[in-house]
Amino acid sequence: MANTSDIKNGLCINHNGKLFQVKEFQHVKPGKGPAFVRTKIKQIDTGRVLDHTFSAGHKIEIVRIENRDYQYLYQEGDSYVFMNNENFEQVNIQPSLVDKPEFLIEGMTVSIIYHAEEELPLVLELPMHIVSEVTYTEPGIKGDTATNTMKPATIASGAEVRVPLFIDTGEVIKVDTRTGVYVERVKD
Question: Which of 104, 123, 154, 167 could form a disulfide with 136 if both were Cys (CB 3.0 to 4.6 A apart)?
């Protein structure tokens, strides 16, 4: 059993019978009273982020997790099929584990976090950015680059993102998968 001095970003813990991952932490030693650790923890199965304060020396149960790289193959019924990049085994992942399935592109490499003791997939993490072609958007007008106005565009994965007015159908763009925001136009 570990205690609060072992808390660090990315640590997976069992708290109140549920699995949480530490996103942020801060050790606080006030002038009066005992020290404590202020944390932001993300519940793994729901994705909900909670603020929680642990008193110094509080016992925590650490859960061993592993990051494994998988390649997205295709969607089969209501699940997604991924292939392990090391041993080529295929695994079906339920949609509830995929945070933003609209950004999945066939052939992309993703990271799946596994509960090491139970061999159970917990979370699927997409790459931070994807590069995709714009399949449809309204035509841009020459000279529309002076303002920060955005228009809707559909990319190859089927997701809709907001892009600047100068982006046309057929252009390749970079999109941030965490926020779904246009980053830049990709040059050939």
Answer: 154
Number of domains in the chain: 3
Tokens 């695994």 appear where?
91
Note whether 107 and 127 are within 8 A (CB): no
CATH number at residue 46: 2.30.30.30
For residue 71, the model assigns a pLDDT of 94
Q: For residue 81, how many other CB atoms are within 10 A of its CB?
A: 16
- The helix (H) or strand (E) run that includes residue 116 is none
Map tokens 């050790």 to a residue. 27
Amino acid sitting at position 139: P
Residue 39 pLDDT exceeds 90: yes
How many angstroms separate the CA atoms of 170 and 155, rounded? 9
Instruction: Please identify, among 110, 125, 140, the residue that sits at the C-terminal boundary of a domain.
Output: 125
The model carries a pTM of 0.73
Dihedral sign of CA atoms 179, 181, 183, 184 in order: positive
**SS (HEC) of 93-145:** ECHHHECCHHHCCCCCEEEEEEECCCCEEEEEECCCEEEEEEEEECCCCCCCC
112 and 80 within one domain: yes
| Cα distances (Å, whole numbers) of residue 117 to 63, 66, 146 | 9, 10, 56
51 is in which domain, residue-wise?
Answer: 2-62
